[in-house]
Amino acid sequence: xxxxxxxxxxxxxxxxxxxxxxxxxxxxxxxxxxxxxxxxxxxxxxxxxxxxxxxxxxxxxxxxxxxxxxxxxxxxxxxxxxxxxxxxxxxxxxxxxxxxxxxxxxxxxxxxxxxxxxxxxxxxxxxxxxxxxxxxxxxxxxxxxxxxxxxxxxxxxxxxxxxxxxxxxxxxxxxxxxxxxxxxxxxxxxxxxxxxxxxxxxxxxxxxxxxxxxxxxxxxxxxxxxxxxxxxxxxxxxxxxxxxxxxxxxxxxxxxxxxxxxxxxxxxxxxxxxxxxxxxxxxxxxxxxxxxxxxxxxxxxxxxxxxxxxxxxxxxxxxxxxxxxxxxxxxxxxxxxxxxxxxxxxxxxxxxxxxxxxxxxxxxxxxxxxxxxxxxxxxxxxxxxxxxxxxxxxxxxxxxxxxxxxxxxxxxxxxxxxxxxxxxxxxxxxxxxxxxxxxxxxxx
Length: 444
Hints:
This protein is 55% helix and 3% strand. It is mainly α and 444 residues long. It has a single domain, classed as Glycosyltransferase. It has a two-stranded antiparallel ribbon. It has a two-stranded antiparallel sheet with strand order 3-4. It has a two-stranded antiparallel ribbon with strand order 5-6. β3 and β4 form a beta hairpin. It starts with a helix and ends with a helix.
């Protein structure tokens, strides 16, 4: 893969369709887990489905009854039991992962990780497909841009102020559709967003949220990614200069370990860098390099060493930070970083294969939906193409369309609901862009 822009930001127009209304879920019956497990083998379909709903509602408290039925003679019982156990384990892993992120970062993209909705299981039915029609996701975003060029995160449902991050994401969505500071029907919106982001830079190139005095790693990485893409596509001198300043700041924010560069964390030269923040830095640095900006090679050398520390090769897994347990989200992020750092697909695939065992069960469950991890996973499997990519992008496409409103805005289910509509809608647009890029490359 030669160009990050070809993966992150490519060809998107107005997509999709009017959303089909979802039927309200049937209430779960009042069954004890052991009794519900017995009913999984019923000859009556509705009885079996009622038992599934009861066990989904019971969640972790049903784990013992399900474990006891793992070797049941009835194949239908075993099938349901294995799926339900996988969902419970995925939710337990998710809860732990978000707890770790909260300790490391506090907030991400406008969501207060201390106030995330309680993780719940979703049933095993597919999300409803959308009806025919048209949604203009980009128009929705542009209609909500403030006059000075930024997007107000709090105005559109974010739990915390995250204007730099969400403005960067909205700008990336516009750039992904081919709109630059020079061309496209939204070129004025792009110019205004770029100008606002540049105003949020300190003299040393670091991006700051309005009113804050110290840079936050994720805030800088997203601002840098957006300006790198804009500079590469538009080649406007002022934008290129600002993007270069942002790149130069990266080495100063990067953590040190034994006197050598390492990963990135929330704070400048954090003692505990994390894989979540570092992944966004890798994307931003790769994009900068593709845009023709000078990147200090020590930044890449450092994150390579950091990934080696986060790697758990015996388990084909990664951890998000020192002291954390492996998670499928960390495996997705570590795999994506290594793909963009030049690893061969064959060396990365075992890590993604492990993550994929629970990714679809967990990522695309409406009440568990993790749009950031899902986007990272889509970018990762894009490198492989074929069935692994097409199967996931088709499932994701159905899910995303089913959770947009009539104008194309994201309805924000799942664990990142606190991020609000701007960030969620922009990530949705970027996910569609990956699919469209694949279609253009392959004709499929």
